[in-house]
Amino acid sequence: MKSFESNKGSLFKICIVGDGGVGKTAITDRFLGKKFQTGYQLTIGAEIKVYTQNIDGKEIKYQIWDLAGQPRFKFVRSSFYKGSHAIIMVFDLTKIESLFNLFSWKQEVFKYIGYEIPLMILGNKNDLKDQIEKRIIRDCIKKLKHEFLLAEISYFSTSALNGQNISDALRAIGRILLRTPLIDLYEKVIIAK
Ligand SMILES: Nc1nc2c(ncn2[C@@H]2O[C@H](COP(=O)(O)OP(=O)(O)OP(=O)(O)O)[C@@H](O)[C@H]2O)c(=O)[nH]1
Ligand SMILES: [Mg+2]
Q: Ligand 1: which residue has its CA nearest to atom 12?
């Protein structure tokens, strides 16, 4: 096994997925310190954003693939997942169907990746009040976890509007990636081939 130190200065590819309009672009723009836009401009295909974060003295570089969530982009999305080290799934706290749709997002993502990688779920727009009951969220995440059989699946309630929990969520996924020896990820890629 490689030591955790070997992940220092690494570049991690993270795909961010979820229904159109849940706030993926707003969240990733927040990572980059960009101003929040109230208007909805749907993403076409994908936008790649590079962001560096310092975690406990280690520099982590993320290549974040902000994917288009609208159904018409399903076909093009399939080519973007390969080589991902982690996935961020986003739903809109005010739209329960966007939470239930994470099951089909999970299927789409892992069909193309072919092996399991760390996963984070973000319930976004919490500035509009958590309109989805906490119990429903908990049950849904439990079910997703069961389907994935993943040890690493974490949940944050975020707001791209006021920035709540945005950098903490990325930091948390960074910590998970630092803990995961790269060799494990590579082995999984090889097994999947
Ligand atoms: N109130 C509130 N609005 C948000 C938040 N995040 C995003 N929005 C708004 O939601 C709309 C959609 O946001 P986007 O980030 O473009 O959504 P997306 O998930 O990237 O959508 P696609 O690119 O089509 O997949 C925009 O009008 C944003 O201003 C949030 O945390 N709070
Ligand atoms: Mg977008």
A: 21
